[in-house]
Design brief:
It is built from 21 helices and no strands. By secondary structure, it is mainly α.
Length: 489
Protein backbone atom coordinates (compact mmCIF):
# COMPACT_ATOMS: atom_id res chain seq x y z
CA UNK A 1 0.00 0.00 0.00
CA UNK A 2 1.46 3.42 -0.96
CA UNK A 3 2.59 5.64 1.91
CA UNK A 4 0.06 8.40 1.22
CA UNK A 5 -2.81 5.94 0.83
CA UNK A 6 -1.86 4.17 4.06
CA UNK A 7 -1.82 7.42 6.01
CA UNK A 8 -5.11 8.62 4.55
CA UNK A 9 -6.89 5.32 5.15
CA UNK A 10 -5.55 5.09 8.69
CA UNK A 11 -6.53 8.66 9.58
CA UNK A 12 -10.00 8.22 8.09
CA UNK A 13 -10.44 4.82 9.71
CA UNK A 14 -9.37 6.07 13.13
CA UNK A 15 -11.58 9.15 12.77
CA UNK A 16 -14.74 7.18 11.95
CA UNK A 17 -13.97 4.51 14.55
CA UNK A 18 -13.37 7.23 17.10
CA UNK A 19 -16.67 8.83 16.11
CA UNK A 20 -18.37 5.47 16.55
CA UNK A 21 -16.84 4.82 19.96
CA UNK A 22 -16.91 8.36 21.34
CA UNK A 23 -20.35 9.41 20.11
CA UNK A 24 -21.94 5.95 19.91
CA UNK A 25 -20.47 4.72 23.16
CA UNK A 26 -21.22 8.05 24.77
CA UNK A 27 -24.90 7.70 23.90
CA UNK A 28 -24.80 4.05 25.02
CA UNK A 29 -23.20 5.20 28.26
CA UNK A 30 -25.97 7.71 28.96
CA UNK A 31 -28.71 5.22 28.09
CA UNK A 32 -26.95 2.62 30.24
CA UNK A 33 -26.86 4.97 33.23
CA UNK A 34 -30.62 5.54 32.90
CA UNK A 35 -31.23 1.79 32.81
CA UNK A 36 -28.97 1.16 35.80
CA UNK A 37 -30.92 3.69 37.85
CA UNK A 38 -34.20 1.89 37.02
CA UNK A 39 -33.15 -1.77 37.22
CA UNK A 40 -31.83 -3.76 40.15
CA UNK A 41 -28.40 -5.45 40.51
CA UNK A 42 -30.02 -8.91 40.25
CA UNK A 43 -31.39 -8.05 36.78
CA UNK A 44 -27.86 -7.53 35.49
CA UNK A 45 -26.73 -10.62 37.36
CA UNK A 46 -29.19 -12.81 35.44
CA UNK A 47 -27.75 -11.65 32.12
CA UNK A 48 -24.22 -12.04 33.49
CA UNK A 49 -24.91 -15.69 34.29
CA UNK A 50 -25.41 -16.38 30.59
CA UNK A 51 -22.42 -14.40 29.32
CA UNK A 52 -20.06 -17.33 28.93
CA UNK A 53 -22.56 -19.44 26.98
CA UNK A 54 -23.24 -16.71 24.45
CA UNK A 55 -19.58 -15.73 24.24
CA UNK A 56 -18.55 -19.30 23.40
CA UNK A 57 -21.37 -19.64 20.87
CA UNK A 58 -20.45 -16.39 19.13
CA UNK A 59 -16.83 -17.50 19.11
CA UNK A 60 -17.60 -20.74 17.28
CA UNK A 61 -19.89 -18.96 14.87
CA UNK A 62 -17.08 -16.60 13.87
CA UNK A 63 -14.36 -19.25 14.27
CA UNK A 64 -11.65 -16.67 13.53
CA UNK A 65 -12.75 -16.42 9.90
CA UNK A 66 -13.02 -12.65 9.97
CA UNK A 67 -9.31 -12.38 10.80
CA UNK A 68 -8.52 -15.09 8.25
CA UNK A 69 -10.28 -13.15 5.49
CA UNK A 70 -8.54 -9.91 6.46
CA UNK A 71 -5.13 -11.56 6.61
CA UNK A 72 -5.50 -13.44 3.30
CA UNK A 73 -4.01 -11.53 0.37
CA UNK A 74 -5.86 -13.18 -2.56
CA UNK A 75 -9.36 -13.45 -1.07
CA UNK A 76 -12.27 -13.97 -3.51
CA UNK A 77 -16.06 -13.73 -3.52
CA UNK A 78 -16.13 -17.52 -3.14
CA UNK A 79 -14.22 -17.10 0.13
CA UNK A 80 -16.75 -14.59 1.45
CA UNK A 81 -19.77 -16.67 0.45
CA UNK A 82 -18.29 -19.87 1.89
CA UNK A 83 -17.73 -18.30 5.28
CA UNK A 84 -21.16 -16.65 5.22
CA UNK A 85 -22.95 -19.98 4.82
CA UNK A 86 -20.70 -21.69 7.36
CA UNK A 87 -21.43 -18.99 9.96
CA UNK A 88 -25.16 -19.28 9.36
CA UNK A 89 -25.20 -23.06 9.78
CA UNK A 90 -23.10 -22.95 12.95
CA UNK A 91 -25.31 -20.17 14.32
CA UNK A 92 -28.41 -22.33 13.88
CA UNK A 93 -26.66 -25.34 15.44
CA UNK A 94 -25.67 -23.39 18.55
CA UNK A 95 -29.14 -21.93 18.86
CA UNK A 96 -30.59 -25.44 18.93
CA UNK A 97 -27.98 -26.53 21.50
CA UNK A 98 -28.74 -23.61 23.82
CA UNK A 99 -32.49 -23.99 23.34
CA UNK A 100 -32.41 -27.53 24.71
CA UNK A 101 -29.66 -26.79 27.25
CA UNK A 102 -31.59 -23.85 28.74
CA UNK A 103 -33.23 -25.89 31.55
CA UNK A 104 -29.81 -27.30 32.52
CA UNK A 105 -28.34 -23.80 32.68
CA UNK A 106 -31.24 -22.65 34.84
CA UNK A 107 -30.74 -25.67 37.10
CA UNK A 108 -26.99 -24.99 37.40
CA UNK A 109 -27.68 -21.52 38.78
CA UNK A 110 -30.88 -22.62 40.55
CA UNK A 111 -32.72 -19.84 38.72
CA UNK A 112 -35.77 -21.16 36.78
CA UNK A 113 -36.44 -17.96 34.82
CA UNK A 114 -33.13 -18.37 33.00
CA UNK A 115 -34.77 -21.02 30.77
CA UNK A 116 -36.93 -18.60 28.80
CA UNK A 117 -34.31 -15.82 28.91
CA UNK A 118 -31.71 -18.16 27.40
CA UNK A 119 -34.02 -19.28 24.61
CA UNK A 120 -34.93 -15.72 23.62
CA UNK A 121 -31.40 -14.27 23.81
CA UNK A 122 -30.00 -17.24 21.85
CA UNK A 123 -31.71 -15.88 18.73
CA UNK A 124 -29.00 -13.20 18.70
CA UNK A 125 -26.49 -15.89 17.75
CA UNK A 126 -28.21 -16.49 14.40
CA UNK A 127 -28.72 -12.77 13.82
CA UNK A 128 -25.05 -11.97 14.52
CA UNK A 129 -23.90 -14.88 12.33
CA UNK A 130 -25.44 -13.12 9.34
CA UNK A 131 -23.51 -9.91 9.99
CA UNK A 132 -19.93 -11.22 10.22
CA UNK A 133 -19.01 -11.29 6.52
CA UNK A 134 -20.58 -7.92 5.58
CA UNK A 135 -18.77 -6.31 8.50
CA UNK A 136 -15.50 -8.02 7.57
CA UNK A 137 -15.72 -6.70 4.00
CA UNK A 138 -15.98 -3.17 5.33
CA UNK A 139 -13.03 -3.74 7.64
CA UNK A 140 -10.89 -5.01 4.75
CA UNK A 141 -11.74 -1.86 2.80
CA UNK A 142 -10.86 0.15 5.95
CA UNK A 143 -14.34 1.63 5.63
CA UNK A 144 -15.48 2.44 9.15
CA UNK A 145 -18.00 5.09 8.16
CA UNK A 146 -20.86 2.66 7.52
CA UNK A 147 -20.31 0.61 10.74
CA UNK A 148 -20.19 3.87 12.71
CA UNK A 149 -23.54 5.03 11.33
CA UNK A 150 -25.08 1.60 11.89
CA UNK A 151 -23.80 1.39 15.47
CA UNK A 152 -25.18 4.83 16.29
CA UNK A 153 -28.66 4.05 14.95
CA UNK A 154 -28.85 0.62 16.60
CA UNK A 155 -27.69 1.98 19.97
CA UNK A 156 -30.23 4.83 20.01
CA UNK A 157 -33.21 2.72 18.95
CA UNK A 158 -32.48 -0.33 21.12
CA UNK A 159 -31.44 1.74 24.14
CA UNK A 160 -34.57 3.87 24.01
CA UNK A 161 -36.75 0.78 23.69
CA UNK A 162 -34.94 -0.83 26.64
CA UNK A 163 -35.59 2.21 28.84
CA UNK A 164 -39.30 2.23 27.93
CA UNK A 165 -39.61 -1.46 28.82
CA UNK A 166 -37.72 -0.90 32.08
CA UNK A 167 -40.03 1.97 33.07
CA UNK A 168 -42.99 -0.34 32.43
CA UNK A 169 -41.61 -2.61 35.17
CA UNK A 170 -40.44 -5.59 33.11
CA UNK A 171 -37.08 -5.81 34.90
CA UNK A 172 -34.51 -8.05 33.23
CA UNK A 173 -36.57 -8.19 30.02
CA UNK A 174 -35.56 -4.59 29.34
CA UNK A 175 -31.98 -5.84 28.91
CA UNK A 176 -33.12 -8.79 26.79
CA UNK A 177 -35.15 -6.60 24.43
CA UNK A 178 -32.39 -4.00 24.22
CA UNK A 179 -29.80 -6.63 23.25
CA UNK A 180 -32.02 -8.40 20.69
CA UNK A 181 -33.20 -5.19 19.06
CA UNK A 182 -29.67 -3.87 18.73
CA UNK A 183 -28.45 -7.08 17.06
CA UNK A 184 -31.38 -7.16 14.63
CA UNK A 185 -31.10 -3.51 13.56
CA UNK A 186 -27.32 -3.79 13.17
CA UNK A 187 -27.55 -6.84 10.91
CA UNK A 188 -30.33 -5.43 8.75
CA UNK A 189 -28.50 -2.15 8.21
CA UNK A 190 -25.21 -3.91 7.40
CA UNK A 191 -26.90 -5.67 4.49
CA UNK A 192 -28.85 -2.62 3.35
CA UNK A 193 -25.93 -0.17 3.42
CA UNK A 194 -23.19 -2.63 2.44
CA UNK A 195 -25.07 -3.75 -0.70
CA UNK A 196 -23.53 -7.22 -0.64
CA UNK A 197 -25.14 -10.57 -1.38
CA UNK A 198 -23.47 -13.97 -1.05
CA UNK A 199 -22.98 -16.15 -4.10
CA UNK A 200 -24.97 -19.36 -4.34
CA UNK A 201 -21.88 -21.46 -3.83
CA UNK A 202 -19.77 -23.09 -1.10
CA UNK A 203 -16.14 -24.14 -1.58
CA UNK A 204 -14.61 -26.79 0.67
CA UNK A 205 -11.20 -25.85 -0.70
CA UNK A 206 -11.71 -22.25 0.37
CA UNK A 207 -13.04 -23.38 3.75
CA UNK A 208 -10.03 -25.64 4.44
CA UNK A 209 -7.58 -22.94 3.41
CA UNK A 210 -9.14 -20.30 5.68
CA UNK A 211 -9.72 -22.74 8.53
CA UNK A 212 -6.02 -23.60 8.60
CA UNK A 213 -5.37 -20.05 9.77
CA UNK A 214 -8.57 -19.48 11.76
CA UNK A 215 -8.47 -22.76 13.71
CA UNK A 216 -5.67 -21.47 15.91
CA UNK A 217 -7.60 -18.27 16.53
CA UNK A 218 -10.67 -20.33 17.38
CA UNK A 219 -8.83 -22.34 20.01
CA UNK A 220 -7.08 -19.24 21.31
CA UNK A 221 -10.40 -17.42 21.39
CA UNK A 222 -11.93 -20.28 23.32
CA UNK A 223 -9.19 -20.01 25.93
CA UNK A 224 -9.59 -16.23 26.12
CA UNK A 225 -13.38 -16.50 26.34
CA UNK A 226 -13.17 -18.95 29.22
CA UNK A 227 -10.64 -16.73 30.99
CA UNK A 228 -12.74 -13.59 30.51
CA UNK A 229 -16.03 -15.16 31.58
CA UNK A 230 -15.04 -17.66 34.25
CA UNK A 231 -15.29 -14.89 36.84
CA UNK A 232 -18.96 -14.32 36.00
CA UNK A 233 -19.70 -18.06 36.13
CA UNK A 234 -18.09 -18.56 39.52
CA UNK A 235 -19.53 -15.37 41.05
CA UNK A 236 -23.02 -16.28 39.83
CA UNK A 237 -22.70 -19.86 41.08
CA UNK A 238 -20.99 -19.29 44.45
CA UNK A 239 -22.29 -15.86 45.44
CA UNK A 240 -25.64 -14.50 44.16
CA UNK A 241 -27.33 -12.81 41.21
CA UNK A 242 -27.07 -9.52 43.11
CA UNK A 243 -23.30 -9.92 43.61
CA UNK A 244 -22.88 -10.82 39.95
CA UNK A 245 -24.89 -7.72 39.09
CA UNK A 246 -22.47 -5.64 41.16
CA UNK A 247 -19.51 -7.22 39.34
CA UNK A 248 -21.15 -6.82 35.92
CA UNK A 249 -21.74 -3.12 36.35
CA UNK A 250 -18.44 -2.53 38.13
CA UNK A 251 -16.64 -3.67 34.99
CA UNK A 252 -19.10 -2.00 32.61
CA UNK A 253 -17.75 1.53 32.99
CA UNK A 254 -14.00 0.74 32.89
CA UNK A 255 -14.70 -1.42 29.85
CA UNK A 256 -16.50 1.50 28.24
CA UNK A 257 -13.21 3.41 28.10
CA UNK A 258 -10.90 0.45 27.60
CA UNK A 259 -12.94 -1.36 24.96
CA UNK A 260 -13.65 1.85 23.06
CA UNK A 261 -9.95 2.56 22.69
CA UNK A 262 -9.07 -1.08 22.04
CA UNK A 263 -11.71 -1.63 19.39
CA UNK A 264 -10.89 1.60 17.55
CA UNK A 265 -7.19 0.81 17.36
CA UNK A 266 -7.48 -2.95 16.97
CA UNK A 267 -10.17 -2.74 14.31
CA UNK A 268 -8.19 -0.23 12.26
CA UNK A 269 -4.66 -1.49 12.95
CA UNK A 270 -5.19 -5.17 12.15
CA UNK A 271 -5.94 -4.62 8.43
CA UNK A 272 -3.21 -1.93 8.32
CA UNK A 273 -0.58 -4.18 9.93
CA UNK A 274 -1.72 -7.12 7.81
CA UNK A 275 -1.22 -5.03 4.67
CA UNK A 276 2.39 -4.41 5.79
CA UNK A 277 3.25 -8.02 6.63
CA UNK A 278 5.76 -8.15 3.75
CA UNK A 279 7.39 -4.90 4.92
CA UNK A 280 8.53 -6.02 8.37
CA UNK A 281 10.62 -2.95 9.32
CA UNK A 282 7.86 -0.55 8.38
CA UNK A 283 5.26 -2.63 10.19
CA UNK A 284 7.28 -2.60 13.42
CA UNK A 285 7.63 1.19 13.22
CA UNK A 286 3.86 1.56 12.82
CA UNK A 287 3.32 -0.91 15.66
CA UNK A 288 5.54 1.09 18.03
CA UNK A 289 3.77 4.34 17.28
CA UNK A 290 0.37 2.75 17.77
CA UNK A 291 1.51 1.48 21.17
CA UNK A 292 2.37 5.02 22.25
CA UNK A 293 -1.00 6.32 21.08
CA UNK A 294 -2.79 3.60 23.08
CA UNK A 295 -1.21 4.52 26.41
CA UNK A 296 -1.60 8.23 25.69
CA UNK A 297 -5.36 7.91 26.25
CA UNK A 298 -6.08 4.77 28.21
CA UNK A 299 -3.80 5.23 31.24
CA UNK A 300 -4.91 8.77 32.23
CA UNK A 301 -8.58 8.16 31.35
CA UNK A 302 -8.97 5.08 33.54
CA UNK A 303 -6.86 6.55 36.35
CA UNK A 304 -9.13 9.61 36.42
CA UNK A 305 -12.19 7.33 36.44
CA UNK A 306 -10.75 5.39 39.40
CA UNK A 307 -10.18 8.64 41.30
CA UNK A 308 -13.75 9.80 40.72
CA UNK A 309 -15.54 6.45 41.05
CA UNK A 310 -17.17 7.18 44.41
CA UNK A 311 -18.80 10.53 43.52
CA UNK A 312 -19.70 9.18 40.07
CA UNK A 313 -21.53 6.13 41.42
CA UNK A 314 -23.31 8.02 44.20
CA UNK A 315 -24.44 10.90 41.98
CA UNK A 316 -25.39 9.03 38.79
CA UNK A 317 -26.33 5.51 39.91
CA UNK A 318 -27.65 6.24 43.44
CA UNK A 319 -26.78 4.66 46.78
CA UNK A 320 -28.03 1.19 45.83
CA UNK A 321 -24.92 0.75 43.66
CA UNK A 322 -22.31 2.01 46.16
CA UNK A 323 -20.97 -1.52 46.89
CA UNK A 324 -19.39 -1.52 43.43
CA UNK A 325 -17.02 1.40 44.20
CA UNK A 326 -13.93 -0.63 45.28
CA UNK A 327 -14.65 -3.24 42.60
CA UNK A 328 -14.78 -0.62 39.88
CA UNK A 329 -11.57 1.05 41.04
CA UNK A 330 -9.59 -2.20 40.82
CA UNK A 331 -11.15 -2.98 37.45
CA UNK A 332 -10.10 0.45 36.16
CA UNK A 333 -6.47 -0.52 36.76
CA UNK A 334 -7.05 -3.95 35.22
CA UNK A 335 -8.64 -2.51 32.09
CA UNK A 336 -5.95 0.09 31.45
CA UNK A 337 -3.63 -2.84 30.70
CA UNK A 338 -6.07 -4.56 28.30
CA UNK A 339 -5.61 -2.38 25.18
CA UNK A 340 -1.81 -2.69 25.39
CA UNK A 341 -2.06 -6.47 25.70
CA UNK A 342 -4.51 -6.57 22.79
CA UNK A 343 -2.10 -4.68 20.53
CA UNK A 344 0.68 -7.13 21.41
CA UNK A 345 -1.56 -9.99 20.31
CA UNK A 346 -2.77 -8.10 17.24
CA UNK A 347 0.65 -8.08 15.61
CA UNK A 348 0.87 -11.89 15.83
CA UNK A 349 -2.35 -12.18 13.84
CA UNK A 350 -1.18 -9.57 11.35
CA UNK A 351 1.91 -11.60 10.42
CA UNK A 352 -0.10 -14.80 10.16
CA UNK A 353 1.23 -16.38 13.39
CA UNK A 354 -2.09 -17.49 14.83
CA UNK A 355 -0.24 -20.51 16.23
CA UNK A 356 1.69 -18.23 18.58
CA UNK A 357 -1.52 -16.41 19.45
CA UNK A 358 -2.93 -19.78 20.52
CA UNK A 359 0.11 -20.68 22.63
CA UNK A 360 -0.01 -17.36 24.46
CA UNK A 361 -3.70 -17.59 25.31
CA UNK A 362 -3.53 -21.21 26.46
CA UNK A 363 -0.56 -20.45 28.71
CA UNK A 364 -2.72 -17.98 30.69
CA UNK A 365 -5.54 -20.40 31.53
CA UNK A 366 -3.95 -22.31 34.45
CA UNK A 367 -2.75 -19.06 36.07
CA UNK A 368 -6.26 -17.61 35.88
CA UNK A 369 -7.80 -20.68 37.45
CA UNK A 370 -5.23 -20.79 40.28
CA UNK A 371 -5.79 -17.11 41.14
CA UNK A 372 -9.56 -17.59 41.04
CA UNK A 373 -9.45 -20.65 43.32
CA UNK A 374 -7.33 -18.74 45.83
CA UNK A 375 -9.44 -15.57 45.87
CA UNK A 376 -13.03 -16.89 45.79
CA UNK A 377 -13.08 -17.94 49.47
CA UNK A 378 -11.92 -14.42 50.38
CA UNK A 379 -14.95 -12.67 48.89
CA UNK A 380 -15.95 -10.64 45.83
CA UNK A 381 -13.42 -7.84 46.35
CA UNK A 382 -10.56 -10.36 46.54
CA UNK A 383 -11.76 -11.94 43.28
CA UNK A 384 -11.59 -8.55 41.55
CA UNK A 385 -8.11 -7.83 42.94
CA UNK A 386 -7.06 -11.22 41.62
CA UNK A 387 -8.50 -10.22 38.26
CA UNK A 388 -6.26 -7.16 38.25
CA UNK A 389 -3.20 -9.27 39.09
CA UNK A 390 -4.04 -11.63 36.24
CA UNK A 391 -4.36 -8.72 33.81
CA UNK A 392 -0.90 -7.53 34.86
CA UNK A 393 0.62 -10.98 34.41
CA UNK A 394 -1.17 -11.36 31.06
CA UNK A 395 0.48 -8.19 29.79
CA UNK A 396 3.97 -9.60 30.37
CA UNK A 397 2.96 -12.92 28.81
CA UNK A 398 1.46 -11.20 25.74
CA UNK A 399 4.58 -9.05 25.32
CA UNK A 400 6.90 -12.07 25.18
CA UNK A 401 6.76 -12.76 21.44
CA UNK A 402 6.87 -9.08 20.37
CA UNK A 403 10.04 -8.86 22.48
CA UNK A 404 11.52 -12.04 21.02
CA UNK A 405 10.59 -11.39 17.39
CA UNK A 406 10.75 -7.60 17.12
CA UNK A 407 12.87 -6.52 20.10
CA UNK A 408 9.84 -4.65 21.45
CA UNK A 409 9.02 -6.52 24.65
CA UNK A 410 7.57 -5.48 28.00
CA UNK A 411 10.63 -3.60 29.33
CA UNK A 412 11.01 -1.51 26.20
CA UNK A 413 7.28 -0.87 26.09
CA UNK A 414 7.25 0.32 29.70
CA UNK A 415 10.10 2.70 28.88
CA UNK A 416 8.02 4.01 25.98
CA UNK A 417 5.11 4.56 28.39
CA UNK A 418 7.17 6.15 31.18
CA UNK A 419 6.42 9.79 30.40
CA UNK A 420 2.69 9.08 30.17
CA UNK A 421 2.91 7.30 33.54
CA UNK A 422 4.74 10.28 35.11
CA UNK A 423 2.16 12.73 33.75
CA UNK A 424 -0.67 10.54 35.05
CA UNK A 425 0.89 10.33 38.53
CA UNK A 426 1.17 14.13 38.74
CA UNK A 427 -2.46 14.44 37.60
CA UNK A 428 -3.52 11.88 40.25
CA UNK A 429 -1.88 13.71 43.13
CA UNK A 430 -3.49 17.04 42.21
CA UNK A 431 -6.95 15.59 41.52
CA UNK A 432 -6.91 13.58 44.76
CA UNK A 433 -5.93 16.65 46.77
CA UNK A 434 -8.63 18.82 45.23
CA UNK A 435 -11.28 16.10 45.48
CA UNK A 436 -11.05 15.72 49.25
CA UNK A 437 -11.48 19.48 49.69
CA UNK A 438 -14.76 19.70 47.75
CA UNK A 439 -18.03 19.26 49.71
CA UNK A 440 -20.40 17.64 47.16
CA UNK A 441 -20.25 14.86 44.61
CA UNK A 442 -21.39 17.13 41.79
CA UNK A 443 -18.60 19.63 42.49
CA UNK A 444 -16.05 16.83 42.62
CA UNK A 445 -17.14 15.65 39.18
CA UNK A 446 -17.49 18.99 37.38
CA UNK A 447 -14.25 20.40 38.81
CA UNK A 448 -11.95 17.39 39.08
CA UNK A 449 -12.67 15.84 35.67
CA UNK A 450 -11.69 18.88 33.55
CA UNK A 451 -8.91 19.74 36.03
CA UNK A 452 -7.43 16.27 35.63
CA UNK A 453 -7.53 16.51 31.83
CA UNK A 454 -5.93 19.97 31.87
CA UNK A 455 -3.17 18.94 34.29
CA UNK A 456 -2.41 15.82 32.29
CA UNK A 457 -2.21 17.67 28.96
CA UNK A 458 -0.04 20.42 30.44
CA UNK A 459 2.31 17.92 32.12
CA UNK A 460 2.48 15.81 28.95
CA UNK A 461 3.47 18.93 27.01
CA UNK A 462 6.17 19.80 29.55
CA UNK A 463 7.53 16.25 29.42
CA UNK A 464 7.71 16.41 25.64
CA UNK A 465 5.12 13.76 24.73
CA UNK A 466 4.99 14.43 21.00
CA UNK A 467 1.87 12.35 20.40
CA UNK A 468 -0.21 15.03 22.14
CA UNK A 469 0.74 17.55 19.48
CA UNK A 470 0.11 15.00 16.73
CA UNK A 471 -3.37 14.24 18.01
CA UNK A 472 -4.23 17.94 18.12
CA UNK A 473 -2.82 18.38 14.62
CA UNK A 474 -4.79 15.36 13.41
CA UNK A 475 -8.02 16.81 14.80
CA UNK A 476 -7.25 20.16 13.19
CA UNK A 477 -6.51 18.53 9.82
CA UNK A 478 -9.76 16.57 9.96
CA UNK A 479 -11.80 19.64 10.86
CA UNK A 480 -10.25 21.72 8.09
CA UNK A 481 -9.75 18.81 5.67
CA UNK A 482 -6.09 19.46 5.31
CA UNK A 483 -3.37 16.95 4.59
CA UNK A 484 -3.05 14.59 7.58
CA UNK A 485 -0.20 15.56 9.88
CA UNK A 486 0.26 12.30 11.78
CA UNK A 487 3.25 10.25 10.75
CA UNK A 488 2.97 6.48 10.83
CA UNK A 489 6.52 5.77 9.72
Amino acid sequence: MPEKSLKTKTITGVAWSAFDKIVGSGISFVLGVVLVRILMPADYGLIGMLAIFFAISELFVGSGFSSALIQKKDRTEIDFSTIFYFNLVIGVVFYIILFFAAPLIASFYNTPQLTIITRVLSLNIIINALSLVPETRLSIAINFKIPAIIALLSIIISGTLGIIVAYKGFGVWALVIQSSTRALIRTLLLFILNKWKPLKSFSWQSFRQLFKYSSNLLMAGFAATVINNIYSVMIGKIFSARDLGYYTNAKQFPEFFSTSITSVLQGVTFPILASLQDERARMITVYGRLMRFVVLFVIPALTLLALLTEPFIRYFLTEKWMPIVPLMQWLCFARMITPISALNMNILNAIGRSDLYLKVDISKMPITIIILVITIPMGLKAVVIGHFLMSLLAYFINAYYPGKMFNFGAIRQIKEMSRVIYATLIMSVIVFGVRILLPTDLLKLIICAPLGIAVYLFTAHILGINEIREVLAMIQSLLHRKKPFIKLT
